TrEMBL record:
Taxonomy of the source species: Bacteria, Pseudomonadati, Bacteroidota, Cytophagia, Cytophagales
Official protein name in the record: Four helix bundle protein
Matching SUPFAM superfamilies: IVS-encoded protein-like
CDD domains referenced in this protein's UniProt entry, alphabetically: 23S_rRNA_IVP_like (cd16377)
Membrane-spanning intervals of the chain: none
């Protein structure tokens, strides 16, 4: 699913292809305090679900890639995102959860760098790469909002 509207190509005032207003409302819709109150296991977190989907998509997309070094590193960093969300959640302390959310956010940034590299060397088409970058930016924003919520509500 691409969040880019027809006719928009990363113009000013957008975030990952979404107008900033739409991007903000998207993130806030998925990370409201009411949503947080209903989370009983890490699988309930939308950011974990999106991170897992991102990792699965990358595994499939890179199945035939012959650049084993970049392919394996992209797979590891993509798997690290939902894995760190899950590990932090299971630690059952807010401080450690936030710490692992930050690690997940860092892994997500690492993945974006690798996607840029894969576009640059021709492993990914620009269209596919930009779609992956857009999804990764959304995950990063969701992680940041979850960190902020955990700090403000439970810190």
């Amino acid at each position: 699913m691409i969040f880019r509207r027809k006719g928009r190509k990363g113009k000013r005032g957008t975030k990952g292809g979404l107008p900033i207003q739409d991007f903000s409302s998207f993130v806030h819709t998925h990370l409201t305090p009411d949503f947080m109150a209903k989370v009983e296991k890490f699988e309930d977190l939308l950011v974990w679900q999106k991170g897992l989907t991102q990792a699965i998509d990358l595994y499939k997309l890179l199945a035939d890639c012959k650049d084993y070094g970049l392919r394996d590193q992209m797979r590891r960093s993509s798997v690290s995102v939902p894995s760190n969300v899950a590990e932090g959640f299971e630690r059952h302390t807010n401080k450690e959860f936030i710490r692992f959310l930050r690690i997940a956010k860092g892994s997500n940034g690492e993945l974006r760098t690798q996607i840029h590299l894969a576009i640059g060397v021709g492993i990914l088409s620009a269209e596919t790469g930009f779609e992956l970058l857009s999804k990764s930016r959304i995950i990063s924003a969701m992680l940041q909002n979850l960190i902020k919520t955990r700090q403000e509500k439970f810190g």
